[in-house]
Structure formats: C-alpha cells, structure tokens
Amino acid sequence: MACNGLHPRVGIFAIVSDEQGRILIGRRLSTLGKGHWGFPGGHLEQGEDFFACVERETLEETGLEIRATKVVGLTNDKFPELDKHYVTVFTKSERTKAQQEPQVSN
C-alpha cells in the first residue's frame, strides 16, 4: 500500500488517570477521527523524545501538566481511504498537579 510516497507518521497519546481512576479523553478535532473520543496527544516532531512529545501535546490540548512514565502500547494503523499511515505510541502518564483540571481547547 502506498501512502503518498511518505513515511508513516508517528502519533503519541497519553493515557492519564486521576485518583478516582477516571481516564482523560476528549473529542478529536483533527480530520483523522474527527468527532470521535480519544486520548490527548499529537505528532512526534523531528528529534523529539516520546515522553517530551506527549507531555507537550497534552499541555497544549488540555492545559494539564503531566509526566509520561511508560510506553504501554503501539499500533500500526493504515488508512488507505485517507492515504495515511500511522504508527501510534500509547503512554501511561500521570498528572504532576493532582488538583489541576483539564481545560477545553480549540
């Protein structure tokens, strides 16, 4: 399967839970998965570490400061109808400030 001649993109997502065991999810705004529920995250930038990426993306999307602690899963997703291919890394992450609440981001 050709994906517009480019290499797969790398996506990074944070699985963040609170003291009550609730997991943070939000509705996706990007074209890929728009309107579906998902974890905060984004694209890995050139030279960026997995954990630094997911911490940055989560802060940008939710206002939460987190610390990524462990890679817990990987997927290899092909979307031929969109001519896209993603390798996605899922991280277990924790809030650095327990009292902090996520904010809605546009």
From TrEMBL:
Protein name, UniProt field: Nudix hydrolase domain-containing protein
Alphabetical GO biological process terms: dGTP catabolic process
Gene Ontology cellular-component terms listed: cytosol
Entry-linked PROSITE patterns: NUDIX, NUDIX_BOX
Stored Pfam families: NUDIX
Molecular functions (GO terms): 8-oxo-7,8-dihydrodeoxyguanosine triphosphate pyrophosphatase activity
Keyword Hydrolase recorded: yes
Top-level lineage group: Eukaryota
Residue span, Nudix hydrolase domain: 5-106
Lineage summary: Eukaryota, Fungi, Dikarya, Ascomycota, Pezizomycotina
Family from the record: Belongs to the Nudix hydrolase family.
Keyword Plastid among record annotations: no
Species, as recorded: Stachybotrys chlorohalonatus (strain IBT 40285)
